Amino acid sequence: MVKRKRIALLAAAVASTVVTAVVGVAVAHAATVACAVRYTVSAQWPGGFNADVTITNLGDPVSSWRLTWAYAGGQRVTQAWNATVTQDLAQVTAANMPYNATIGLNGTANFGFSGSWSGGNPVPTAFALNGVTCTGSGNPGPTPTPTRTTAPPIPDYPPTGRLCDSDDLIEIGKYWIPNNQWGATGATGSQCIWSNGGPGDPIYWGTSYTWSGDPSSVKSYAAAILGWHWGWRRPNTGLPVQVSANRDVTTNWRFNVTTNGSSNMNVAYDMWFHPMADPGSADQPTDELMIWLYRANASPAGSRQGTVTIAGTTWEVWRGHVGTWNVYSYVRTSNTTSATLNIRDFTNDVVSRGWMSSSKYLTSVQAGPEIFTGSGEVSTTLYQVTVG
Predict the structure, then answer these.
(1) What is the three-class DSSP state of 118?
(2) Within 10 A of 324 (CB to CB), how many other CB atoms are there?
(3) b/e for 182-212, b at 16 or more Cβ within 10 A?
(4) Which residues contact 186 (CB under 8 A, 6 or more apart)?
(5) Residue 345 DSSP class
(6) Is pLDDT above 80 for 148?
(7) Which of 324, 268, 273 is nearest to 300 (CA)?
(8) pLDDT digits (tens, 9 = 90+) for 250-282
(9) Under 8 Å between Cβ of 193 and 205
(10) Per-residue pLDDT tens over the stretch 304-326
(11) Model confidence over 343-386: pLDDT tens digits?
């Protein structure tokens, strides 16, 4: 396997921070605007917090919305879901996404975000919807903030439809899915991704592809990413974890494979490891672990080292070197489209062979089809990763 093309993850340290890449949301003012807002700090830890916001429309239906408030404690919004959130100094604006723009009479809209704080994290008490102050009873006023115990609830996400540009991506729950065509230069073809919506964990998604060219080189790897991928994008991943901690990293994956004629491809997990706990976008991994569940006319990088039985299944074990890192591949000796695994079992096997130090950190768990050539579709009917 060869080096993944970096997905551009740009962060601008400016006074006005755009959290979600959706722009140009038009606000249509209803004839009568009345509203209530409930703002809840759902989790808080030193320097950070998560918040959930519910807007209740007490007036005429609105076809789009923009909620504004001001922070009094120097808080900054860093990540958001189900809304486009921008901040200019203390002033914060949250605007609807395309799928939750309409709020009927007594209807609600929900969104959430992660933020940072220093010195204090007071709950704002004044909100305005489309420029009109919300005076309904939903405003909670100051409340004690909880300590962090569990990850915040993950909101529902709508289906996306097919996205076929190479820079398209889907953010869903703690995962994100780029339409990664890292090896397509010089090849002919295309690839699309989509999400079937749902709670965000588990997720349901798919990809279709048509590629021709060198049958020995990977063209694309559309994958559900948890954690690092030349930077960090989504919150509450549970990663990184140090290998020596021997933590459970359990995963369930159910998928269907459809090929039109002969294809060179595999469906596999891809894990990255670093010597530090919080790698940045420029920190190259030192080790890569792949777990192949399904393959057609494809082989991993390096050479076969033997076989091993893990999770009641026999796997070929391969070892190689790609770019600046080592790669270890566990290839199922018989194809499957359904697996329940503990990634720890595979990392422990790598460590026991003396190939990787247990001081390394697992920073990323990814899963999807690697396409060399051919035409087809891989549809994931269930995918979930839980870090214990």
Answers:
(1) coil
(2) 9
(3) bbbeebebbbbbbbbbbebbbbbbbbbbbbe
(4) 213, 214
(5) H
(6) no
(7) 268
(8) 999 999 999 998 999 999 999 999 999 999 999
(9) yes
(10) 999 999 999 999 999 999 989 99
(11) 999 999 999 999 999 999 999 999 999 999 999 999 999 999 99
Question: What does the block give as tokens for 28?
Answer: 């249509």
Q: Rounded to an integer, what distance in angstroms lies between the CA atom of residue 298 and that of residue 147?
A: 49
Q: Is the peptide bond before 202 cis (omega within 30 degrees of 0)?
A: yes
SS3 351: helix
Predicted pLDDT of residue 185: 92
CB atoms within 10 A of CB 153: 12
Contact in structure between 311 and 345 (CB atoms under 8 Å) = yes
Report angle CA 224, 197, 155 to the nearest 5 degrees: 90
pLDDT attached to residue 82: 80
Going by C-beta distance under 8 Å and a sequence separation of 6 or more, which residues neighbour residue 305?
A: 317, 318, 319
Q: Name the token pair of 46.
A: 């030193």
| Partner residues linked to 113 by β-bridges | 51, 80
Tokens at 32, concatenated: 């009568």
Q: What are phi and psi of 349, to 5 degrees?
A: -70, -40
CA distance 265 to 268: 10
CA distance linking residue 375 with residue 264, whole number of Å: 9
pLDDT at position 62: 92
What distance in Å separates the CA atoms of residue 247 and residue 70, rounded to the nearest whole number? 41
Strands 287-296 and 325-332 come out as parallel
Helix and strand counts by DSSP (H, E) for the chain: 1, 25
CA distance 94 to 82: 10
Closest C-alpha among 225, 263, 223 to residue 368: 223
Predicted pLDDT at 137: 64
| pLDDT band per the 50, 70, 90 thresholds, residue 155 | low
C-alpha 37/C-alpha 110 separation (Å) is 10
pTM tops 0.85, yes or no: no
Q: What is the dihedral of CA 82, 163, 294, 371, to 10 degrees?
A: -140
